[in-house]
Write a structure and sequence with these properties.
With 64 residues, this protein is mainly α. Helix content is 77%, strand content 0%. The model has no long low-confidence stretch (mean pLDDT 92).
């Protein structure tokens, strides 16, 4: 059961990284590669801590 939970969490994390990476051009973030990597890898923390990031993350996911 523990391994399944770990795989599920890693899958959700990876999905979030991939969706932000592919939808990054729809956001208001600076288009630099280091910024893109930083914001993609730290998405779970930033979603909790930053309202503006949540709005941009939603734009990346939904294409708005």
């Amino acid at each position: 059961m523990g391994k399944v939970l770990v795989l599920l969490v890693l899958g959700i994390y990876g999905y979030g990284v991939w969706k932000l990476w592919t939808g990054f051009n729809r956001t208001n973030f600076s288009r630099s590669l280091p910024n893109r990597m930083y914001l993609s890898l730290l998405w779970p923390v930033l979603i909790v801590a930053n309202k503006s990031y949540r709005k941009n993350f939603t734009k990346a996911l939904k294409g708005r």
